Amino acid sequence: MVPRIVITTGEPAGVGPDLAVMAAARDWPGELVFIGDPQLLARRAAQLRRPLEIRTWRPEQAAAPQRAGQMQLLPLATTAPPEAGCPDPANAGYVLALLDAAIDGCRDGRFDAMVTAPVQKATIAASGRPFTGHTEYLAARTGAPLPVMLLVAGELRVALATTHVPLAEVPGRITVASLRTSLAVLDRGLRTVFGLPAPRILVCGLNPHAGEAGHLGREEIDVIGPAVAEAAADGIAVRGPVPADTAFTPASLAGTDAVLAMFHDQGLPVIKHAGFGRCVNVTLGLPILRTSVDHGTALDLAGTGRADPGSLFEAIGLALRLARP
Description:
- By secondary structure, this protein is α/β, with parallel strands linked by helices.
- It has 2 domains: 1-144 and 286-325, Isopropylmalate Dehydrogenase (3-Layer(aba) Sandwich), CATH 3.40.718.10; 146-284, Isopropylmalate Dehydrogenase (3-Layer(aba) Sandwich), CATH 3.40.718.10.
- 37% of the residues lie in helices and 18% in strands.
- The chain has helices spanning 16-24, 38-47, 92-107, 121-126, 134-142, 170-173, 176-192, 219-233, 244-247, 250-253, 264-275, 310-322, and strands spanning 4-8, 31-36, 53-56, 70-75, 113-116, 148-153, 156-160, 200-204, 237-242, 258-261, 280-284, 290-292.
């Protein structure tokens, strides 16, 4: 069967519409259904000099592989006329409506997976709507208690124990219970989504040198270590905590299927250095399958034709491989 993937076009002033046009300009082995403003997408296609035939998607039609130059579109209109590079809080509702339509379509079985283009968190927040990121929004909309953000670049996989929170709040967010849940979600996702029969997980410490036996912090002794021990007792192949500055060395990664970092900027700089432009963000712990790009809205590149579609292409490719139609 042909998998059907829905793709949100993200912040209308950013590169999301450009990337969508680029994705539609090539063949894919599954059906791609884009959600966005048809006038915006037609305008960006013209700016990028990419011939594009936009067709309104009909859910009753049988799924067919994507053909270059055609875009199956679930149309939603922006609230305010978007200008490339200049995000407008008036369009925050439009951006969230894209996500809602994709989530609802995945939950009711119309789509096998969703892929998200980048959004501008600050612009959504400026509209008065609470929004800290895709991961948290998807969890709230699907009722997932604790999603796990996983970045994938080839064989390197890095998950996060905390996501979009201020650094000062990280220690308070890390508890034995939350880490046990994160490890369980990560272990289950590696098994069910990635097909690893016995995933091996490496857990980073929070403090320099993993706390140096308590001299540089006690989180490793009081929280992370006990959580790892309890997860191991539950049958999860996990080890740690290890110092984050050596967790990503070849020797450590040789026997590891995924690394659990304690906070956003502990894990993401490593994987983005290793594979920026081809990394994929996968949200584990949801009742739906979601992948995303590894970058932001790149407002300065919107409408110029200079945006790199590599990460979106990787996200689409992974979603197609993982989808179970």
